[in-house]
Amino acid sequence: MLTRAEIFEKLKDILIFADQKNLEKINGCTEDTKLVTELGFNSVSVLYMVIAIEESFGIVFDNATIGDFETIGDVITYI
In sequence order, what are the beta bridge partners of 34? Predict the structure, then answer.
């Protein structure tokens, strides 16, 4: 089982893949970083992120849950 720190590092790689224009912001992010307001993720970015997370971690998101993620920490907790 991965530690929270390992999940965070893997998630940062996924976020970079999902939204390469925000490389600097993503590299400097913390668990408290907000996906939409601070990283500027939109619905397409979130979709790419969800697909990549599902493939990388072998999990499936519920549609109702995706909208509940405000911060990177929320995503890590779900994973």
Answer: 71
